Amino acid sequence: MLNPDTNQRLCRVGPDDAMGRAMRRYWLPFMPAAELAIGEDPRGVELLGERFVAWRDDSGRAGLYHQSCLHRGASMRLARAEGDGLRCIYHGWKFAVDGTVLDTPNVADPAFKARIKGRTCAVREAGGLLWAYLGPREHEPEFPRWPWMDLPDAQRLITRHVEECNFVQVIEGLVDSSHLGLLHMNGLQQSGAVDLGFAQKVNSMQRNLAPRLDVQDTDFGFYYAALRDIDDEAGPRTEARVAAFVAPCCVLNPNGDIATFVVPIDDERTAFLHIFWSETQEINREPLRSRHLEFIGLTPEVLDAFGLTDDTLGRADRPNPRNHFHQDREAMRLGKSWSGLPGLIEEDVAASVSAGALRDRAHEMLSIADVGITRLYRTLLACADAVDQGRAPLGIARGVDWSRVQGTHGVLASEDWRDLVAGRREPATEGAA
Ligand code: FES
Ligand SMILES: [Fe+2]
Predict the structure, then answer these.
(1) Ligand 1 pocket, 93 CB below 6 A?
(2) What is residue 338's three-state secondary structure?
(3) Residue 3: phi, psi to the nearest 5?
(4) What is the pLDDT of residues 401-418, one digit of tens each?
(5) pTM, to two decimals
């Protein structure tokens, strides 16, 4: 339970909000790199409640411009794409992707443009994603080098969808193992029959609906473990699924080959990026690509039908809270469907979004099943507090070895699930900002 003030502090991400200031201290992925082609028109991007324009110059460098022009605020979304820079149509000021001012045709003095800098953000391209740093330049952190960034594109499958609610309630679903066997029971029941590595890894979850849960603070966020005692034809054992929450908005799935980034568009809309990778298979090539997407329910057709794309979000003819997400009550009555929703993603979206665009936490009744949720609140609020107090937030106070941060799963061989996490890290000593 959180009082309304603390809830707002937790959730709001604008430039003047505590959590917004904290989130601006991290590198955030804002779109799949393949979606921004050389020579394309400038693309609108919304991130943390602010409007930007993404564009790739003719040498392939990607840039993220504040939407309003440095001069007098005309929209750079309307700018002319001129190969080496974007030129505002109002008075023709032209900016390179790194903010260098290339031309100011209405100011004759050539020295003028050398003294000013365009309103661009630091951008990196890595792991098939474009990343931005929106915070103060003097606090720009080291760029996180995840091992999956070094794989070939063919071995990495990236999807993006959007949801109509605050980012915190979307992350909650990722550190909430006990909903899997219930909300997603139909999908899990099918998973044993599907010969995809992904499906096999989640198959045991349906066999114990009340996992024991535990958390461990780390210097990047926390590990979250769900332990299930299982006794079946394979014999009695305890299976552990361990997720890593990486501040401020990443969860490494216990499957060990999925990273999810839950990036606020604004206070009430969220972009959800999945990165699936394989050390051995070209999962981004057909037929594996389509099979993965179909099993998880992230095909372009599903995203469009459920209103999870930029173009369809909030449309009245798509499933949404006002039409109860087109829930199929008949299928529920007939015992054909637990949730009345078509797939895993739709179930998660409906569960998150139906709680309200920015859900009220004053009346929630958290239980022992929600240790991941309370730890999430505490960790995010600690990040906001750190920045407010002039310190660096979690994961930035001292360099994190990203190659050792992982989600994982397995049968417990020892008493302590932490032994499964080779790269386990203790909480950071607080460093200076
Ligand atoms: S407003 Fe952009 S050049 Fe004047
Ligand atoms: Fe879920």
Answers:
(1) yes
(2) coil
(3) -70, 160
(4) 888 888 999 998 887 899
(5) 0.93
